[in-house]
Amino acid sequence: MRSFGLISIRSMVAAVGMATAMTLSVSASATPGVSDREILVGTIQDLSGPIAMLGTPVRDAMLMRFEEANQAGGVHGRMLRLAVEDAAYDPKRAVLAARKLVQRDQVFAFLANMGTPVVMATMQMIVDSGRPHLFPFSPHELTYTPLHPLKFQMFAPYQDYMDAAVRHMVGANGYRQTCLLYQDDDYGLEVMKGVEAGLAKIDMALVERTSYKRGATDFSSQVARLRAAGCDFVVLATVVRETVAVMAEARKIGWEVDMLVTASGYSAQTHELGGDAVEGLYGVTVLPHPYAEGADPALADWIDRYRARFGVAPNVWSAMGYTIADLFIQAADAAGPELTIEGFVSAMASLHTEGDIFGGPAYRFSPDDHLGNRYGRIAQIRDGRWEVLTDYVD
Amino acid sequence: MTGQAPTLRGGFARRVGLSVIVLCALSLLAVRHLGLDYALGQLVFIFTYAIAGLGVVLIVGQSGQISLGQGALIALGAYVQTLLVLRGVPVPVALVLAIAVGCAGGWIASLPARRLGGLYFAMSTLAFALIVEEVLVRWESMTRGAAGLLVPDASIGPWLLNATLSQALVSGLVFLIALGCCRRWVASRHGRAWRAVRDDEVAAAACGVDVARCKAQAFVIGGGLSGLAGGLYAHWIGFISPEQFGLFLSFELLMLAFIGGARHLAGAFWGALVIVAIPQANALLRDLLPAELARAAGVEAIMFGAVIVAVILFRPQGIAGGKA
Amino acid sequence: MLRRMITFMQVLVSGFATGCIYGLVALSFVLIYKATETVSFMQGELLMVGAFAVLALNVGAGWPLWLAALCGVAGMVVLGAVLERSVLRRAIGQPHLTAVLLTFGLGMMMRGSVTTVPAASHSMHRLPFPFAGETLTVGPVPVAAEHVAVIVATVLLAAALTLFFRHTRAGLALRACSENPRIASLMGVSVSRMHTLAWALGAGLAACAGLMLAPVTFVHLNMGLIALKAFPAAVLGGMTSLPGALIAGIFLGIAEAIAGLMLPEGVKDIVPYALLMIALLLFPSGIGAAFARGGARLAR
């Protein structure tokens, strides 16, 4: 029953994709959002909803990268402008925002739309209108598969990262009883799928799993449950606050178990708020956190400029937003002075980057793979800061 | 306000005239400022919200009950519609079933009213909504849980409703039909019984009105309208997940009814207009404000809050106003 | 066996502490409802604003924590009074729904205002309580210091409120006014001043709950969500009983924690609402009233 629904949607998506590609090649005369002086790019962010803590730094860092590019003369003489809409994680507002950006503002492309409900509600409409849908913050496969000429992604689903990370951790540390504590929403489910898939590949299974609702206060019962099941390795599909609470609870009852948190818990806030309680926590990340202390000159300079511009220290989300805007600029630059959607998309589909000031991965896109990177690294909190332990694991 | 008939009639004509003028001005402004297609997209949501709003107006304004769980009834409609259409049921048939399930949900939500009154009953509707949301999250084999469901475009026979114009026409038409039905109901004997319950439960019961039955009726019909709105909403949004139908949606609908005027059926439309327009007003305002202030999030929440507070303080009967 | 007993005790204490916070928010809700017949849907926001106010004074202005806490709570008391005088007064005598929406709207405005401050919406914050993160051991049971602090503070607040309602003029007047405003006004109590007092106290209590929640969940925009658990507590307690609200809150906190430990995965989250439904259907006028009736019967 389930697969029936999915298959029909997939085939629909593919059919629409092909139709779009065909109409594109016909009507490429006047490119929306592009004038002689300007390129207008849209983004649907969460600036006031449940994940505003992610949306705001992403938006700020994209603005910063665009401003820098403009000061350097723009892309082939065109200034970059970012049209931001706040959908607050609400799909209804997202649909209206997407229509506004497509129809009224006439944006050239969508960059870094924030949140799975937002992306799922708007992606179809955006690619139907012929606009590139680039690097959304949604760990959903549909953002890059099946291959669609206008869809690009640089974050793999949590599933992929966690699959590899769990296998690596179990292989390296010889855990026997892996358990999961997850938030009961799309994020948590995605992580669960990845952990299960990773364990299945090494002939293991989850020993115990337990969940919590967003906004939960008390984690004592969940931690007690996991401990009673004899777990020696706990994967956390939590965000910052819950990560700290779970670690603190475990340490309180004297349970020295290894825990691994997803990229959502990989934040400087985790150790700033958690202090001693989160020492030793493992985490998965794609980009390292931009710490000012010990930064190389290029990164230190970037951190100073970010601070000066927005009055707060940048975090890992800022680094992601900056990277996203940078990838856009690289592709737009490679597309040449005659900027069309077709030209941009084909430039994007052959873009290879060589790492960046943050120590991020090299992103490689190809005409038949629109996911730029699918590997994460393992890090650990040591002496109150995240230390990256491994290279990209697969 | 004198109570004489000619004045009333004159007031009615004036009100209709005023409404037409306001609507024309607004649509002109919207089309000019937003573009025709975008304005039509807004209209789709106005009508869809207005349908759900009619349900709230019936429950709150006509029968005098508080429902804090209307979002859950919309969720029922949206999920039934989506699951049926994904299994190949034609859209109109699915819509009828979505209405039926909405009615059934409303009936279940009204059951505690047999034992509980006033605020306690309101709290039980809240509990009902939270339990429905939890079931939608947990029943993964059916609803895909929190991961949500993609909803295919609606089609009626060979006619695919994927353009904003056709969507606006369909939701407008459905709204008008719903409004017509509600009008007849409200003017009927049943409607009078509801208002008697609203104004004084004890007196109504003394006059032989079956109070429990009236409350159940209000929730069944209100639930059906919610189911209908949910079914349409699912298609227009294209993706449904349990958290979309949470407490905030229920409150949004209550605010809608209050801003529009819960005592008038037309209040549902006016309320929906305001609720959908506030984000637009916010976008306009943002262009006028200094950049640093405009960048700040939260302005929209302040505006929403301010509108509802202002309406309650200065126009407690809502936009549609007056007594009915 | 001992291991399981200890685990059970740990979970019980955590649930008790969480329940204390539910109970305090429920208490603030009932206090307002009893005195003014107004259903406040902004207790969660008041809690959040209170915590942020203390944070701003402590971290932003650099005041010592005790002073910041004192002034923050006092500020919220004033805010409650001002809101009552200016806006909430209009909801008196209106249907319940008017008050529900009015407070909801005010709550949205408060939340929106805090959201506009970038530092508040960008990250979570910690109030530097000296005991945060410490662990005590009571017999064989390890207990988080912040949980002990929450329980102690709740007991102190409950005691202070009891003294206030039993032994001060204002407290007695507020009680009289809650029982029967007409008779109270005949006795020379200014009912409108009592309404202001009730809102001021309600806002102050919510701010105290926010302070207690801060070491447990940190200070952030969505910390007010906890009020969603406090409503069932208030209703379970019978809506008009202050001790009932507190006890029902603690009961819910414990029930939730134990359900999370013992019952199948996923049941935990609907326990408060399922309990609420059952209790409502069994005792239509609230458990508090049922207790009171039972008590009266026993006394007879």
Model description:
The complex is a heterotrimer of chains A (394), B (324) and C (300). In chain A, 44% of the residues lie in helices and 14% in strands. Chain A contains 12 helices and 12 strands. The longest helix of chain A is centred in the first third of the chain and has 25 residues, at 2-26. Chain B is built from 14 helices and 4 strands. In chain B, strands 1-4 form a two-stranded antiparallel ribbon. In chain B, helix 1 runs antiparallel to helix 2 (36-62), helix 2 packs across helix 12 and helix 11 (247-260) crosses helix 12 (266-288). Chain B is globular, with a radius of gyration of 20 Å. Chain C has one domain: ABC transporter involved in vitamin B12 uptake, BtuC (Orthogonal Bundle). Helices cover 75% and strands 3% of the residues of chain C. Chain C is built from 13 helices and 2 strands. Chain C has helices at 2-36, 43-60, 65-86, 96-116, 118-122, 145-167, 169-179, 181-186, 191-217, 227-236, 242-262, 271-282, 287-299; strands at residues 135-138, 141-144. Chain C has a two-stranded antiparallel sheet with strand order 1-2. In chain C, helix 1 (2-36) packs antiparallel against helix 11.
Give a quick summary of the entry.
The complex is a heterotrimer of chains A (394), B (324) and C (300). Chain A is an alpha/beta fold and 394 residues long.
Please name the defining characteristics of this protein:
B: 324 residues; mainly alpha; two-stranded antiparallel ribbon; 14 helices; 76% helix; globular; C: mainly alpha; ABC transporter involved in vitamin B12 uptake, BtuC; 3% strand; disordered C terminus
Which strands sit side by side, in order, in the main sheet of chain B?
A: 1-4
How are helices and strands ordered from N to C of chain B?
HHHHHHEEEHHHHEHHHH
Strand coverage percent of chain C: under 5%
Average of the residue pLDDT scores of chain B: 84
Query: Helicity range of the residues of chain C?
Result: over 70%
**How much strand content do the residues of chain B show?**
under 5%
Number of discrete helical segments of chain B: 14
What does the overall shape of chain C look like? globular
What is the C-alpha radius of gyration of chain C, as a whole number of Å? 19 Å
How would you classify the helix and strand content of chain C by structural class? Answer: mainly alpha
For the record, give the distance between the C-alpha atoms at the N and C termini of chain C, rounded to a whole number: 44 Å
How would a textbook summarize the main sheet of chain B?
Answer: 2 strands, antiparallel
Kindly provide the radius of gyration of chain B, computed on alpha-carbon positions and rounded to a whole number of angstroms.
20 Å
| Proportion of residues in helical segments of chain B | over 70%
Q: What's the CATH class of chain C, please? A: Mainly Alpha
Helix and strand pattern of chain C: HHHHHEEHHHHHHHH
Could you say how many structural domains of chain C there are in total?
A: 1
Strand element count of chain B: 4
Give the number of DSSP strands of chain C: 2
Show unreliable segments of chain C. 295-300
